[in-house]
Amino acid sequence: MGLHGFVVLAGAVVGLAVGLTGMGGGALMTPVLVLLLGVSPAAAVSSDLVASVFMKPVGSAVHIRRRTVHWPIVRWLAVGSVPSGFLGAYLVGSLASGPALSHAIELALGSALAVAVAGVVGRSLLDRRKGVRAPAPAGPIAVRRVPTLVVGVLGGLVVGTTSVGSGSLMIVALMYCYPALDGRELVGTDLVQSIPLVASAALGQALFGQVRLGVTISLLVGALPAIYLGSRLSASTSSSTYLRPVITAVLAVSSLKLLGVGDAGLGVVLACGAAAGTTAVALRAVRARRRTEVAAGAAFTPAPDPRACRPG
Length: 312
Hints:
The protein is an all-alpha fold. It has helices at about 5-20, 25-35, 40-65, 70-95, 100-130, 145-160, 170-175, 185-210, 215-235, 240-260, 265-300.
């Protein structure tokens, strides 16, 4: 049950990224454990979920103090996510074993990461539209009980089976269900709702999964101080703007690898992604240059010629 140096380092790197960007730790940590450190998929999911029980409250406490949590939404999400998170852990631990279990978890994890990548891209697009969407209503936001309950049930199953989704997927679902919530309320509500969800899934994994205490403790030793440091840095730096695309690319590659895509296929995907990214950067630079030229032209208004006002 001793500390594992590389796991501590991985926890620190992922924790720093989570603190800087707010992206879900499970979507990053579990693939690192499986693909880079050789931890079995079942043990990686179980250990990461147990570690998350201690990591989630770090950011949640800040939002609770700042009153940026929509508690009715949290309660209805928990009604669906707590039992389904426990059920997901039970299903993974009881329906398969050995190589069959590892293969099933790898496929589920790869699929969840693919959905997470789509969710991150969708969240970025929604963030860009915030400036043009309708203003939020002045009154309290009404809870949409059935959609919120469905989000909780589906999100709980995904988290219970793969440890992915409590942040990267469910926050996107909340953005669609509650477009009137501002950014701070979205993050605060998502962080707080993830505490009972992760606790339920971790309990299921502790009972039916393959928790390795050495891996869990090593993750916490590296991740807890790194999350705090990343959260402090995120308030004074814009590095998350550049880090998010990198993390999204890492998630996409990890998803394809877990789904069994070969090196040739990964190369094609990376080449296409690089070409798309370069094109997007070039188009953004052209648009920024045009906006600057338009603004400069509007600012320069020549004074009228007084002679033009004189009678002929």
